[in-house]
Amino acid sequence: MLALVLDDAEMNNLLIVAALQPIPGCLPRDFTVPAKALAYAEAHASEIGVVITDYEMPDMNGVDFIRAVRRIPALAGVPVVMLTSYDQRSLRREALEAGATDFLAKPADPVEIRARVTNLLALTAALRDNAAQLAKEVAAAVALVEEREREIISTLMRAAENRDSDTGDHIARVSAYVGLVAEALGMGPDACRMLVLASTMHDVGKIAIPDAILLKPGPLTPEERREMERHAERGQRILGGSASPVMRLAAEIAASHHERWDGAGYPYGLSGEGIPLSGRIVAVADVFDALTTERPYKQAWPRERARDHLVTSAGAHFDPRVVDAFLSRWQEVEAAMSLQLPHRHEDAAA
Fold it and tell me: CA 304, CA 204: separation in Å to the nearest integer?
């Protein structure tokens, strides 16, 4: 473990380093310039177990140096020792307020230095071990919660699949498209994963739609259309009220993926950036898949025709930025279409 030593007097550094070298596992690194010591601290923060600094130095005194060290996240809890002479006791309160852990009187006693630094290094090691163990426990707890969420989502999806044999394939394709768009928009890996998972529940409200409407092999009447459109609000109610971030995001998507950029969508008539980004992304993925797959009431569109529809509808139905992101991943979109429909190709060949 590294011991960072800072004193503008080279001789003082030599004495402190000599006192620290016998400590097992301690690697002293000494500096005479505060700026260089800080640069080293930032680059090796996770390896530093103790910091020892003098007070009187050019450009930056010891108190300012301690404040700068404490602003480095990985060093926020690392012990910091200030070297002071007996007539500098008035500085100790200021140093404590800046984040000093302990003090050594000058001239420093090598035996005292070794004893104190040994104890402080042991404290750092224990704190890091506890932090690592806590991180493991938190990761295990998060994994358990995520597994429970996946079980809930799987149950909801099985319920939907029992209503409509095409739902499972539709969900798989839409979630694949959503992941591609999210990546193209620059979302981070965690945000992409959450959005993909939440998007699988975008149509969960359809479990409350009567079969006569959901599976009708022809155009819907105006009354039937209004009933079908209620699935957005029903999905929001089914998924809403949860403390789970992914379920809250799923509720947001369920409620907003049929809104339109121009405000002519449903259920709330939202427009533009007033529509959650999650809903705008799923809207493009959902409509593209609906257009390019066969339904009881229509034939599948060729993919190029569906692509042209997205382009001409950007700025009216869809967020133009989301359409651009979707089209920027066109090769992967085409791959996702073919990879997720193998049974359809087999049926066609038969």
Answer: 29
- Does the global pTM surpass 0.70? no
Q: Specify the DSSP class assigned to residue 114.
A: H
Q: How far apart are CA 335 and CA 112, in angstroms?
A: 68
H or E stretch covering 3: strand 2-6
Q: For residues 205 and 233, is the Cβ–Cβ distance under 8 A?
A: yes
CA dihedral 64, 68, 74, 75 (to 10 degrees): -10
CA distance 118 to 79: 11
* Amino acid type, 281: I
Which helix (DSSP H) or strand (DSSP E) does residue 90 occupy? Answer: helix 90-98
Rounded CA separation 54/19 (Å) = 16
DSSP assignment of 11-56 equals HHHHHHHHHHTTSTT-EEEEESSHHHHHHHHHHTGGGEEEEEEES-
Contact, 149 vs 244, CB < 8 A?
Answer: yes
Measured CA to CA in angstroms, residue 189 lies from 80, 179, 196, 309, 330 at distances of 37, 10, 11, 29, 20
Going along the chain from its start, the domains and CATH numbers come out as 2-133 (3.40.50.2300), 163-349 (1.10.3210.10)
Over residues 177-195, the pLDDT tens digits come to 999 999 999 999 999 999 9
CA distance 100 to 76: 11
Least confident stretch, 111-115, 178-182, 216-220: 216-220
